[in-house]
Amino acid sequence: MDHHNDIVDLISSLLDSGKYKEALSIPYEEKFEQSFKDNCWDLISIITSKIQDDTIIIKPSLHGACEELLKIIVEKATPEEALLEFIEQLEVAKNDSQFSIILIPLQLLLKKLHLKRGRSLEWCLNSITTYLETIPIPNYKLEGVERLLIDCDNNMRRIVKVYSMIPPFYKPFIEELNKEDNIVKTKEIICSFLISLLGKPMIYIDLDPDSNAQSEARQLCATIIEDICVLEKNVIKFLTYVEVCSRERETSKLRKDSEEDISPYDHREKINMTSLSGLFYTIFSDHFQIMDTAIPQVYSNEYIVHTTLLTVNYLLNYTEYGPLTKALSLCKSLLNRFPTNASYVFLSLPVHIDLVKGLVKVAIYSDYEGIRKTAVNLIGIHINKFEYKGRCMLIKCLLEIANHSGMIGYAITLYKNSINESFKNPVLDECFTGAQLMDMIKKICYLPHGAESDLVELADQIITALNFLRYLVLKDTTNQTGIRENLTYIETEYLEKLRTGLNMSKAHYEVKLKDIEESKSKSDEHINVSINIGGNVLDKIPMENKKEIIHSALNAFHLIEGLSARLSECINLTKIKC
Amino acid sequence: MTVEEGIDISEAGDRGVLKKIIKEGEGTDTPNRGCQVTVHYTGKLLDGTKFDSSKDRNEPFEFKLGKGTVIKAWDIGVATMKKGEVCVLTCAPEYAYGQHGSPPKIPPNATLQFEIEMIDWKVEDLSPDKKKGILRHILEKGAGYGNPADGALVTVELEGRLKADGKVFDTRTVTFTLGEGSENNICEGIEIALESFSKDEKSRLTIAPKYGFKSEGNNELGVPPDATLEYIVKLVSFETTKETWSMDANEKLEQAKIYKERGTNHFKNNKFHLSIKMYKKVDSLLEYMLDDSSETEEIKTQAKELLLSAHLNLSLVYLKVNPPHYFEAREHATKALKYDPNNVKGLFRRGQALLGLGEAEQAIQDFRKVVDAEPQNKAAANQIIVCQATIQKQKRKEKQLYANMFDKFAKHDSEIEKIRAKAQVDVIGEKVGEWGVGEGEWTDQQRDRKPTEFEKENPNILMLDKDGQFKNM
């Protein structure tokens, strides 16, 4: 027993004292040979523990010696035993250099274990994943060019570094596969690992070529997707897994399979919505070159779009920049693929509604301005892909789910543009006439509390609604839409209430303004004026800003007043003409 | 039509898909919808440019037939191919990538030519472990998109027979919740399969014992242990998670029917709150439909019927919950009567609710209407009696109230009288012979006495006390 510990201690102290040559000679000395072989297990952990992140720079010869020793161990030890210890070390590696120094002997070992590799390879790849997961993901709220700074973040650099070590590790195994007859299982093991690499943490990293075309992360990602295409010649077949995974997520139910022998593609820790989203982002976002043959030209566009949108919807649930920007780029190129004038029948697929919901959420609540703007833009593109009936349905959906006046205003604008488009056709589309139009007008001209509604909060909606109505009254000179039958409703139910509301609000805000001005003149009296705008109590706001806010509110009132007066005028003119 | 181009196999006969057989296949079998088909293909543009080939991937191409995963021309064309057949399909752009093409390889409005070799196909296997535990053979294609999800209420027509001897053991139309089929003797295999059915789809399912009734069999249905089953299943309707505004009138009606059904089931199982929720969904789905002038009369009639029964049932459920919600019950019964003013159930339930609210007078009117419509309706007749009794009781209560009221007034008056009397000079003195307090006269004491319980209940009965005097009323 003593003898055993001897050799471990001996090598350890030799390495510590810088006697690398002697350390390296020990395995070849006859008296140590057996003992070395028996103690490989302990030696692996001792040797790796010598490595620090800066070892390779400060003590390159120590690093070299350790590398060499590990190689010798691979040669001498029982492969199965050493493999287990290496895998263990990989998972508990304390720094990236330790991780890196283990990968080389591990690869050698796997090559040796040629015949019974399947499982061992899977374990190795799993422990690489485990190590990757320990690196924290940087999350900075930066936008535009500033995002380039993230590349300098320490953790970001670690992620890139570790990722860059992985392809050299697995490449030989792919080459081997190509030489021999396809071993399906091994191929699937490597492929599912590669797909998982596109999930976390890669999903958080911005890979848009417009922001940083030469980034290392992008190049790594390109290598990975290339290798996936080499392994699985038809990458579109993973769309079936998207369907399966998204279904499981919805019902949050896994049909437990007792059999252990499931395909590597059914391992949810590898193939899941996150990794598949990463995969299809790389395939369809046009941000990466995909091998010519990898996408069979027989799949229908509808199938590709509808299924891939599931991953977009999944990514839209994130709040971080990386997944969101991926979701939006992917969404944009998918909508490009989608035929125009699509049938409203497609809307019975929940995926479209979910997309609108997801985009609305991002457009209103995202922290990043660029993301918000793109999302708004995509809502418009998506809706306009459909024929008029489908557009109306989606706009109704938008009016229903958006609790944001600006978003509702946007929906009204989309509706107006669609009507305008339809007017150019010889016959106005049926869904812009009669009861259907009225239904929409009721939704558009909506004051939640009648005359007492908060007009400041609703300003955007009211202004666009008034614009829309005026447009319609002026444009539809021949009453194709049947708007004239609805004019009374608009006047009594909307405009009158609006006027009452305006008068009340105006009076209210003018009094407030006066209050402020008075308190200003008698500044020492500290009159506490509290203003409630859009549900937020505004206190502790400098006097000037208070006034600004009130003035902007008053401006909005004036604008609404002007618009509504103009609308009434137009309505009256129309009535006279009739 | 030239032989060069082949025969038109498009359904519309618009020469969208032309097929020319190059090599005949074996037998007569062609793959069905849903089959996993394996082919080799080479696709070319009309000018001969090859844009894609499975041979370049050195791997045959697999896809599910008839599911819209591939371009239309393929779903139509491949379905006509026999095993081993090689043919050329010429596909018009409407049956391929349309006016946009599929950049970068396929230009807009491109006609495509595919040489396809049918290698083989497998019957669709829906079992999770892909060991041919549930095989589907689609007989009639369903309509639309979307499949029932776990937990949705589905209605199916099914016919089950034993694979071994063809004995039919189950024929019925059944409605159940997906995932709880075992309560209706529906085996797991059918439930798993239904999750990939579309509406109106009719399929033949071959189910291995593992997904059937296992080694136990099913005595009730007469299925022996370890039996392989063959079902013909048609999905008649199912509950979707679609939102109201995205449904057209017919879909709304269908969903409303399902909600009504669910509501009734919950009611039967005494889950009143769930039942209320379901009926209310019926209401919210349909309520605006009646005012919508764009709907047809037929649809409106159906909607009206559903609304009527939903409100009737709501009224019933509110009467059944503990404690009963009479107010809501009355509201919903009134709504139901709006649709059908002489509905007996509606009248009866509103009567009950009114009675519960203590409005017996109004209640009796409703019950009388019921009896007018159905003279033999005993329940209503009984309720009338109950109402009358209640009215009686109430009247008595009122009388007693008034009686006491007079009593109090009387007492009050007498006291004032006394005070006034005291104030006056007593000319006659305290006791003057027979005019003083004597026989035949009520003393103040006697007059102040409170009424007994009996008197309270029977204010109009006068009683003699033990002295033979009239008791104070």
What does this structure look like?
- Chain B: TPR repeats lie at residues 344-377.
- The complex is a heterodimer of chains A (578) and B (473).
- Chain A has 578 residues and is mainly alpha-helical.
- Chain A has a domain at 444-578.
- Chain A is 68% helix and 1% strand.
- Chain A has helices at residues 2-16, 20-25, 30-38, 40-49, 55-58, 60-76, 79-92, 96-112, 117-133, 154-179, 184-197, 209-212, 216-231, 239-251, 273-284, 301-315, 321-337, 350-365, 369-384, 388-401, 405-423, 434-444, 455-475, 487-521, 543-577; strands at residues 531-533, 536-538.
- In chain A, strands 1-2 form a two-stranded antiparallel sheet.
- Chain B has 12 helices and 13 strands.
- Chain B has helices at 54-57, 72-78, 188-194, 249-268, 272-286, 297-320, 326-339, 344-356, 360-373, 378-423, 444-448, 453-457; strands at 7-8, 17-23, 36-45, 50-53, 61-64, 86-91, 112-122, 124-125, 134-140, 153-162, 168-177, 202-207, 229-238.
- Chain B is elongated.
- The termini of chain B are far apart.
- Chains A and B meet through helix 16, helix 20 and helix 22 of A and helix 1 and strand 5 of B.
Short summary of the structure?
Chain A is mainly alpha-helical and about 575 residues long.
What is the overall pLDDT average of chain A?
85
Category by helix and strand content of chain A: mainly alpha
Q: Helical segment tally of chain A?
A: 25
| Structural class designation of chain B | alpha+beta
**Cα distance, first to last residue of chain A?**
110 Å
Strand order of the largest sheet of chain A: 1-2
Q: Indicate the proportion of strand residues of chain B.
A: 15-25%
Give the overall form of chain A.
elongated
The overall strand count of chain B is: 13
Using only C-alpha atoms, the radius of gyration of chain A works out to 33 Å
Organism (chain A): Parnassius mnemosyne (clouded apollo)
Protein name (chain A): Glomulin
InterPro entries (chain A): Glomulin/ALF4, YAP-bd/ALF4/Glomulin
GO molecular function (chain A): ubiquitin-protein transferase inhibitor activity
